[in-house]
Structures
1.
Amino acid sequence: MKNDCIFCAIAAGEIPSFKIYEDETVLAYLDINPFSTGHTLVIPKVHTGCLLDTPDETIAAIMSRVKKIAAHIKTALPCDGFNILQNNGEAAGQTVKHVHFHIVPRNGSGGLGFENHAGDMQALEELAGRLRMK
Ligand code: AMP
Ligand code: ZN
């Protein structure tokens, strides 16, 4: 447990949460400032900062629970669809430095608030060359 971490305090039961699921590895509870009704956070009970700090086995366990919890929310709420969000670093909007996955229920059509830009084919080709993993 990390001392100054609010999600560790929630996992330890020191701070209350609107818990909807718990097992030996993860905890899921409602986001207190939800994007939509049913917006849920899924966290590992053991502290890690972001995706890159988190062991593969933990990520695998969290993702299987994210799927299970999202399926439950979709039926129980219900909702038409959902987004899974996972922010890493301040630049990406990560405000709580304990890795977490957002399940954001969605209804109707609309999708996300990201904007597509017309791709520059040459720039894409160069970028792919620079980023391609060996
Ligand atoms: P992120 O921007 O990805 O770091 O998301 C952090 C999320 O945690 C935000 O959506 C907050 O509304 C949520 N949050 C912060 N404190 C609490 C809390 N005590 N209980 C539930 N959700 C929280
Ligand atoms: Zn923590």
2.
Amino acid sequence: MNKGIIHVGASSTDIDLFENQYPVPEGMAYNSYVILDDKVAVMDTVDCRVSEKWQSRLLKALDGRRPDYLVVQHLEPDHSANIGWFASQWPDAEIVLTAKAATMLPQFFSNIPFKIKTVKEGETLSLGTHTLQFILAPMVHWPEVMVSYESHSHSLFAADAFGEFGATTDDGTDDDDWVSGARRYYYNICGKYGAPVQTLLKKASALDIQTIYPLHGPILRSNISEYVGHYLNWSSYTPEQKGIVIAHASIHGNTATAAEKLADKLRARGVEVLSIDLTRTEVSYALAEAMDHEALIVAASSYDAGLFPPMENFLLHLKSKNFCNKKVGIIENGSWAPSAAKVMKSILETLKGVSIADPVVTIKTTLNGQSEEQMNLLVDAMINK
Ligand code: FEO
């Protein structure tokens, strides 16, 4: 525990979908911190669904003191919903934020006479013993984002970076495996923005970081280099998991059966395979696995002269999160006029560094000698470098 830095965030355990799209069966933590020193700084606010709890925890932590600053690292509503309440409580406190955030603030709160203090890259704010240094982090995950390094405690207040899905306890801990939760969080929240995350990591590499205070998930108090190592991999689109993901979307089961047969053939050749049924797996989970494995095979039914929607949804999510630099195999199924491969190729061909394995396998309803031979060739193509 760093003396003078108090976690006042709050978790929601009844939320079903974060951002109204990502399932969070373990809930969601919205973190906020107070730094008590000669001056008092509050680091971000929280989502509206946990306002009451945050306000109560904040007032308790302040114990009658008045904040001098509210540091707004990120304006997205899951962190900014209570800025108006804060300003109404402490109208003399300065709202510390980037110039970009200052231009955006009226979009979120109009007609509030905020006392604004904009800060630039590298600018510092002394609180007494603690000193905050601001580091701009545009597009991690919005353009106005900054993070803050506190040099006395060697702490990085990391905004959305290093976050995780799931609730935490009131002291900012949880029992979850950070890597698996943080991986799905990273690829779905920041996946598109690998280059900006790399830029931030480069800046952070010059700092002695001993604690990370993210805006979601647990406070990271040890093994900082391990967490940073994962972020270096994920942000450079370097898969951490060996083997091939086979993602299939089957209407009546024949495509799924073919996909499982393909998985058996690959495993028989010593390849690790993760098979994912896109009709039963929520897309954020499937996306994280596809991003983090070495290669991908997609197998889908044709549908309405196009592509079965669960696969189309999956591929469009991959595209939006910058899926890249991988070999991808394609299997289509169609009983009279197969059309799935054409649509899958049209999406995959737009992705940087994606090579489509030859041949594309076409199945007419069920596997036969010809399509199985194509499948054998696809196995060779996926294994050969
Ligand atoms: Fe947790 Fe980009 O907000």
